[in-house]
Amino acid sequence: MPNFAALIFVGPGNIEACRLSRLCESLLIHEPTVQTLVIIDDSSEHNFKEILPAELQERTTILPNPRNKRGDWWQGGLCVGLAEGLRWLGENRQVEFVVRLDTDALVINRFSDRVMAALNANSETGLLGTWDKYPLKGNQRLPHEGMSKTLPPMFKKSMKYFAIWRHSDWPTRIQCVLNRNDRIVRNVISRAIRNGYRPGDFIQGGAYAIRGQLVQDLYIHHLTTTPLAFLSQLYGEDILVTLFCYAVGYYPEGCNQSGDVFAVQSKGIPAPIDELKNNSYSIIHSIKGIEAFSSKFKSMTVPSDVL
Questions:
Q1: Which domains does the chain have, with CATH numbers?
Q2: DSSP label of 140
Q3: Which of 57, 108, 206, 208 is the right S-S partner for 285, CB 3.0 to 4.6 Å?
């Protein structure tokens, strides 16, 4: 059995609690031997003993998001959470891969063997998920029209020795290479670009897999040991994890076509559940569009017709 960990972020509110419970139940059904579950708790005040399946509780580590309600949750806040989760795993676990799951993802089939097979097939692959093609139909996804315009000037500025950042929602910030946090961000971006990263490209968030050695390399090179370095970043964790991948010399790879693991897109699911099952997908995202149609979702159970 592959030795892997699951990394999940959770925020406050009953809906998040329901989604987390449902996701963990689905994970346990299809991957009962998952060794480690790491939850990044963003000031949720949840009682996790009431939410998590009893079988997972001894395997679970709850980490508070170091941002402590500072910054923007969808951008720097998620980046800090990602770095914190990968830092803990790099320091405390030796795993073959980490599967990152949003609470609105769902596991519908076993996936660990296929993730390991894909990673073993190419030693340079560091990330698996929705990459250059959209799921199922295979339409071209990259270069991403929006991000390819906004990220290059942002990264160019982040690599300067000195810069002033002004934002309508946040206080003016002075960037200086003498500041450790700014130096870490500059190091991650510059290393990624030197290794072939094209600003604007990113693995689709929601669900993806990270090679375990990549997690170790990030920790060894001190790229994740100061999670708060990423608090002021104006992009999400899917962009940061792509930078991390390139920064330590790996590359993303698509694993989201028929017969692959990830049926993942930003909104909704790529096709009806039955069609995704028939195409042997294992992890789907986002199910926000279908959960309202089932009262069972709201009672923290996994509907049998989905699993």
A1: 4-142+201-298 (3.90.550.10)
A2: B
A3: 206
